[in-house]
Amino acid sequence: MKTRSTDRFKANVYIKRAEQCKNAMQRSFEACEWDACVSNAILCAISSADAYCVHKNGIRSAGDDHREAALLFRSTGPSDPDIGRAYEHLSKLLDIKSIAQYGDRSQDEKDAVQAVKHAERLFDFVRSKIQC
Question: What is the pLDDT of residues 91-106, one digit of tens each?
């Protein structure tokens, strides 16, 4: 797994980026822009995971595959049930990333509701751990 060392104080950069994506996700949801909503949910989750890894261990994933970022996130607490639940939210969003962002089917309200749920739960978990 390819990683990059990052000063822990930079976790706030990643959590702020995640929050901006979360805000865009919510605005897109309110406007019934389902594709944009789901894409921003995915970006929120990835930035949240990066924020937590930087905060916890001073590293983040540097690979091209976001699954590596998810595994790095999971490794921060392999026996911690809270990390396990947060990892599941991240995994659910990564499962739909290619379809949602590059597929030939538009996302619908049901897809957006699920994506919002996963992104908000992951973001809230990470935000509760990082004080900026």
Answer: 999 999 988 888 999 9
Nearest to 101 by CA among 50, 34, 2, 45: 34
Q: How far apart are CA 12 and CA 118, in angstroms?
A: 21
> How many domains does one find in the chain?
1
* Tokens 């595994």 sit on residue: 71
For the residues of 68-124, what is the DSSP string, one character each?
HHHHHHHHTSTT-HHHHHHHHHHHHHHHHHHHHHHSSS---HHHHHHHHHHHHHHHH
Other Cβ atoms closer than 10 A to 108: 12
User: Which CATH number is 38's domain given?
Assistant: 1.20.120.330
CA distances from 4 to 55, 61, 123 (A): 13, 6, 22
20-36 pLDDT, tens digit per residue, is 999 999 999 999 999 99
Instruction: Provide the residue range defining the domain that includes 92.
Output: 3-129
pTM: 0.93
